[in-house]
Amino acid sequence: MKTGFRLQRNPAKIIRESQIKSYNKDIKYIANPKIQFKYMNFYNHVIVWRGFIHTITFRRMMMRIQLVLLSLFLIIQIHANDLKAQRLTLNANQMSLENVLKEVTKQTAYDFLYNPDLLIKHAVPVTLSQINKPLEDVLEYIFKGQPRLTYTVDQKTVIIRPKKETATPISTTNTATLQAVIRGRVINEQSEPMSDVTVQFQGTTRGTKTNEQGLYDIEIIGNNTTLVFSYVGYTTEEVSIAGKQEINVVLKIQDANLDEVVVVGYGTQKRSDVTGAIVSIRPQELENMPYSNVVQSLQGKLPGVNITNTGTSAEGDTRLRVRAQNSINADAGPLIVLDGIQFEGFLSEISPNDIESIEVLKDASSAAIYGARGANGVMLITTKRGLAGKTRIALESMFSTSNIINRPDMMDATQFYNFKQQRMGFVSSFEEQQYQNGVNTDWLDYATQTGFKQDHNLSISGGAEKTKFFIAGNASRTDGVARNDVYNRYALRINMDTEITPWLTFGTASTIGYYDRPGEGANISNASRMNPLTAPYDEDGNLNFQPNPDDLNIVSPLEGLNIQKEDVARRILTNNYIQVDFPFVEGLSFKTLTGYNYRTRLIEQYSSASNTLRGSQVGGSATVNNQNREEWSIENILSYTRDFGPHNIFLTGVYTARAYETKFHDNSGVGFPGDHMSYYQFRLATTLTPSDQYTKESSLSQMFRANYSYDSRYLFTFTVRRDGFSAFGANNKYSVFPSAAVGWNMERESFMQSLTWLNRSKLRLSLGESGNQAISAYSSMPTMANQYYLDNAGDPLIGFYPNQLADPTLSWETTRQLNIGWDFALLKNRLSGTVDAYFSNTRSLLLNKQIPQINGVTTIRQNIGQTKSNGIEVALSSINVQSDNFSWQTNANFTYAKNEIVDVGLFDEAGNPLDNVASSWFIGKPIGVIYTYGFDGIWQETDDILNSHMPTARPGDVRVKDYNNDGAITVEDRHIIGQNFPKYTIGFTNTFAYRDLSLSFFIYASQGATRYTEHMNTYFNGSTTIRQREWWTPENKINTYPANRDDSNPYGLNYFGKTNDASFIRLSDISLAYKLPLSITNKIHVDRLELFTNVKNVLTLTRYIGMDPEYESDFGIPQIRTFLFGARIGF
Amino acid sequence: MKTYAYKLFILLTLTVLLVGCSDSFLDEVAKDETYADNLYTDLNGFKLAKNALLHFPRQERMEPIQSAELGVIWKIGTDIGWANTELSWTRGLNQYTTADLNGMMQFLNGDTEGRPGIFLILYRCISSANLLIARSDNPEVDWQGGNEVENEANKNEMVAHARLIRAWAYRHLVMTFGPVPINTTEITGENYRDDWQRDPVESIQALIEEDLLFAEQWLPDNSNDVARLSKAIAQHYLAELYLWQNKPEQAEAKARAVVDNPNYRLITERYGVRRNEPGCAFMDQFYDGNILPSQGNTEALWVFPNSDVDNILGAYGNTMRRTWVSAYNNRNIEYSPEYGGRGIGRAAITAWVFSIYESSDDRFSEHAIRKSYVDRDGNTIMCHMSASQMTTNNHIWASTRKWDWTYDNPSRYGESYSYADQTYLRLADTYLLLAEALHMQGNNSESNGAAFFINQVRQRANATPVSTGDVTLDYILDERARELVTEEPRRETLMRTGKLIERTRLYNPIASGQRDGGTGIQSFHTLLPFPQRIIDANTGHPLKQNPGYN
């Protein structure tokens, strides 16, 4: 800190400040709404005098100051030379000063900064003739003739200002009040003025806000010493006012740092005041690694948030989990809250560019405010809001191409022919003929293509003093790698906030979306099963819709290309609020937030009798799906926040109600007189099969939260929520979820001052309960299923039978979690991070308990059993190199999670919990284990088979591990051979920046999961199981896979050791971005111009031999590699 | 502005209060679902429940698991059937290999994709029947009769259907697995059990008898309505049960009741849709269009209706032809209606069955057995029928034509399933039960004893009559094979008569172990293994696996 003072006292610095001051005098009268203003490029940096400097800000400042100092010396040296070196030729006859200056700009690298009104008022036309003169001389000449104007030069900018004697400077008339008024300007890192920034004296509520130009003035009253500049989503700056008249501030967008403001649900808090385990990210940080679906881009970026890319469709398929899975059966995905309102449905329908921030509430204390929905974590998505001031336009466009990598290894025609001969002793006459004719079809080739995507985003934001807006349009079109797999998204977002009265604010965050999924994609799953001896097209080039005469029901994978289909979803999502800031009670406000979400999807499809198999068999087949979802919610939030000296209290009460209703009315018809009316001829169908579906869920909740902090040093949070949910049993609809947390900001303690290596340290401890209500409507009701019969005339007889047992006491799962966290910054903030450890117990699990089928069903959903889990999450951020031109930053995170089953509602007579083998639930073992026979190699000719535990085996058979060593294979030899979920995951991002060029790469690793792969399926049905495998033969005595016989794998093993180990390390993303320097962007009058390129899925290291270690199915679209190019421009 | 804001504030406050005051806000009404409570309120609701019950027996001829009729488990691995295509689970019954025939078998347990196995289908059927029976006791039910007597009759006819079908399910269970748990009560989310015990065979037989007697009392003598079962079915199964219990007099009485029922007669003359085409009376009763009683079929006791109208509710994919006809397409032979449509030869009739017909027997004529094909090039390919040709994937193995059926549309000749009506239980079967009952009492007479009734069946098929002296239990079992092959759940018949091991070893060179050199069928194989999944899930009480199985 002392060093900081010295540095700021540096003579060079003083020179700098004097420049600023002179500049700011100009600003004073630029408070004109019509102002046009160009900024000096050096103004990117905070130049302030500070008495008290926040540690982290101070650290950043230090770096900046160093930069500034360095550049200043250069500037000063270049300065004089440069003005002389730049030469120009000018001829003018009574030309306006403005035009003369424009001419100078054209010929030199210099810009002019001026208020146009000033020129209109004071400029005198110029006449001159200067040939190849240094700029210095030309300028001097020009301004000699200007009685009221003078100029100064700063770097490459010439600032024009009035001459002292002609201006009406406040500084002269108001000398007495100089100390009493402070003026200044607040800008963001893009040098754009920021309006509505709160400027307050520290420790008071007295203050003002900046205007559209980012300007403010404030009268000093009393003995206030420090000004605080704050704006939601930006760093808060505290500046000492001692001896200053002008304070200019650059507010930075929050990064994953301790000063940021985080959305905590029903409000925001400063990161330093947060007591729970909350991770947050701003998608802008990932903007050079874009994905269609925002969840995809979060993989490996947030510790404790586990994202699996489960497929490669045009929309992006993901599975999202927060922390260890506690739930055995119930849906384990987190609650998604979009702009304060619960969001249901497709995350791919949210435009990633609209998102301002994403917060994930991980621990029970922070998630408990969402009560019965919080146990799996809560993801809060906040969209961008407008900023008052200059209207900003940003355009971003991206283009990408994708190609399949890691194709599954399929048999070609010869391999298939030989394999089938060997396995089954025959090939069909058709196969023989095709083989002789040399047919060899790689169906995946026909079913896939190079994917292409374009994505365009245009946003306009800005606003005046009382109304701010953010309007964004998104258009994206994705052609997936599966042919005809298309997803088009068109969305318009309007976010607006307006102050109706000083105490009443209205705001909206609304989207209208049109989501188009036209066409039926090629069926990759079928393509991965097609006999290579079949041909996709006939001699005339028409689709063979019965490609295999041996089995006329085999559908061509390309049939979808002939299906006529429209599939459009339309969504209106509007979240609106009214906020009342009670004028009579300071700090008290009431907010009503309403959400309304209406989504309709209409899917129309026709398979014609002439060119599809389905249609040809039934005389044309049409289906229509009408899906309507409507959801409303209302949240009433009463909050009170106030400082009493060092005490701060923040109270929040919430009353909320929500209802969600879906209505589906579908129809399908077959047997039409002709094809030309496609799906508009249901009335002509021979058979119509309509179906309908209705669900409604409703919930009612109350929540109260109290936050108290003393000196921002000791932090306390207490919350309680009461939730009611319709799907629970009639007598069990309500429950209460309490939680409490404490935090200690150690850096505010005096002893921390002596620990120079430790810049920040905060300890957090929380304990709370949250619920998982994730059961669907009617789960507690014993519904009946249909089963039909026919009468003599062949007309349907409707029948019902019981297919669900229901427990009327059904309720939510409850998770109790203890979280211990440490946030820290070391080594002058070069290394910062967070460590969280947690311990959870979940009881009253919603289990689909396997019960004997003697009960008429296989399962019943009940609240039984317990699990416990624990985990460690570490996030580290390190600035490895930071110099003028080059920086290297590393972000790494590590997630370890482990769960185990405590009981599943079964106990022996002594009360000890029992396994439920039928469900593969084992006490003390993780959820989701694979319980089966163990692979123990292959029986070889040299083995003593007769005297082994498998005396009837033959060489080449799978050797099953005799796990209990009883000399025989029995069901007792089944054991746990692996688990479905990884034990730990690691995300690792490195970013290198050299001047305006930045390069980053992201590595993701996942360890410990075991996954099935079709490659290990020894079964062969004669046609569709066509993965190429290496089989045991007497000549090739491998120990990994059995002989090519139907009976070589008698116990039907699917897991063969290492080849099923789905651990992997993946170089997921490399991106390169170039930001055009301001010297260029200024010339072309844009604020920002960036080009970026990105490669996804560069390299994967794994022993898993299936399609992809992350994929749920081995029959989906193979993994793809994407090359992306994009540009963004801002005005 | 202030008034406006004030009004807004009032409005918001009101909204909050209104929402908060709504007591029923969290009540659930599933508008699109049916529950027992709102179904079993009147006769109509009970009929809807009965319709679903009627479908369970049809599932025996569907293929929930591994593309063969579920009932194939009672047919292969016996004297009459073998697995032409050896999948892991059919191999278990085909060859009686330890590794494949065990409690893990999918067709007992259900498969990994949630498709039900035999156990779930049968117990689901029992649960559905129990629910109907239990709900019939509710005095509030409107039985829609004109008076008490009609009400009682309406109620009892519904219950009789439920009890008949429940008896059908327990019959399969006890004959397949031996002792199984009995449940006769309505199962709910509150009283379900996981501590089931296996009840003795005698108790299950008693339950079946009680159910069938009730059904006999309350079902009609005769029904031309496929959705209304007749008492003849109950009597047929009673006859079989009494034979199993070694009560031949009682068996005789029940079988006679069916045989003497004037509404049922053996088909002895040509009739129906193909009566003018070459053929025989025996086969006429297997052609779609001839199956229903209303279409002139007097021999059928129980028929399964079907419909080839696409997508119609109530139609079901019958897999009998697919299971039993060979995959002849592999031999350059085109799918055609003449060849019955597409077969995939999961199962096949043993060479022994083909060997026990006389040449005059209609049941072995070209109308009843596929003996040759003509391929695309015009070559005639003779089918295989000899024991040495019982090799896996024999695509030209001779097959029964009882299940031949395919669509008229040539592009659908190769479709998987059959949508033809089919007979499930025939009077000829009852005749042979009656013969067996008489034989057990020592009456093999050609005029009124076992030989008489056997000859009714034989003469219809133009087979030489059997003489009194030739009637033995084995002869009756042979005759059952000749008449009922692929229809009869053969394993159950042989289990009931104690002949499974002996006859399978004699007549099935694969199941005996002869072909592949294994040990083949053992005495413990009389019962199939108890499903492991049930053992695993029955955590409250350990269930024992059937002896001999791991």
From TrEMBL, chain B:
Compartments, record wording: Cell outer membrane
Keyword Transcription regulation among UniProt keywords: no
Gene3D superfamilies xrefs: 1.25.40.390
Protein name in UniProt: RagB/SusD family nutrient uptake outer membrane protein
Pfam families: SusD-like_3, SusD_RagB
SUPFAM superfamilies: TPR-like
Organism the protein comes from: Sphingobacterium corticibacterium
Domain RagB/SusD: 389-549
Family: Belongs to the SusD family.
